[in-house]
Amino acid sequence: GAGVSQSPSNKVTEKGKDVELRCDPISGHTALYWYRQSLGQGLEFLIYFQGNSAPDKSGLPSDRFSAERTGGSVSTLTIQRTQQEDSAVYLCASSYGGDSGYGYTFGSGTRLTVV
Amino acid sequence: TQLLEQSPQFLSIQEGENLTVYCNSSSVFSSLQWYRQEPGEGPVLLVTVVTGGEVKKLKRLTFQFGDARKDSSLHITAAQPGDTGLYLCADGSGNTGKLIFGQGTTLQVKP
Questions:
Q1: Which of A42, A103, B79, B82 could bond to B45 as cystine, CB 3.0-4.6 Å?
Q2: How far is CA B81 from CA A42, B49, B59, B88, in A?
Q3: Pairing assessment for the beta strands A10-13 and A110-114 based on DSSP bridges
Q4: Mutate to test the interface with B, among A53, A100, A105, A110 (most CBs of B within 10 A)
């Protein structure tokens, strides 16, 4: 597609439920990143994919968080047993290659609210 | 762990004024990127700087990279309401493309 697409754009869930967030990167971009952004704050790295592999998942806050990528394209971030502190905007970005010089193209994010 | 500090955290100015925001790192930058983020959207890349002392211009925006590659500034001339947003600096981390972001400067330009 023309840009990075994320769905849903907004998600309200009850504490303890599982949620899945989807990211559809730019076609041909091999690198995919998930970040989390709390209100008015900078971005916190979660996980990096190169193709279908995740060589860096050091930012995942706990074992309740997992992510996968299939076909070198779509990625899903899953949060199990959601907690109120998981409330944030989850941003996905893709890049032509796994090198910081390329810069990212971000999606518009999924705003997750845990009540 | 590298830390990026941005200042000021918040800036509110009138249309037509000039402003400068800063980004300082606890260690040498690999490659510095500046992004602007508008409410409800993801950040958009403005510029990448790599060489110490480098200056890049993007219309009314001037980006400077310190000689020691540990600091950077973004200067906006004659700010307009369309410049309103969150300005983020970020450093590339090795060959994974992972970026470390600062906390950002929120800029509000009033008409």
A1: A103
A2: 22, 26, 15, 18
A3: parallel
A4: A100
Using a CB–CB cut-off of 8 Å, the residues of B that contact A are 4, 6, 30-31, 33, 40-45, 48, 50, 86, 88, 90-104, 106
> What are A85-90's contacts with CB under 8 Å, separation 24+?
A86/A112, A86/A114, A87/A112, A87/A113, A87/A114, A88/A36, A88/A37, A88/A38, A88/A39, A88/A112, A89/A36, A89/A37, A89/A38, A90/A6, A90/A21, A90/A34, A90/A35, A90/A36, A90/A37, A90/A46
What tens digit of pLDDT does each residue of A56-91 get?
Answer: 999 999 999 999 999 989 999 999 999 999 999 999
Q: Over the stretch B56-73, which tens digit does the pLDDT of each residue have?
A: 999 999 999 998 989 999
Nearest to B42 among A44, A102, A106 (CB): A106
Query: Which of B22-32 are b and which e, b meaning 16 or more Cβ less than 10 Å from the residue's Cβ?
Result: bbbbeeebbbb
Task: Give dist(CA B41, CA B56) in Å, integer.
Answer: 25
Contact at CB, A100 and B92, closer than 8 angstroms: yes
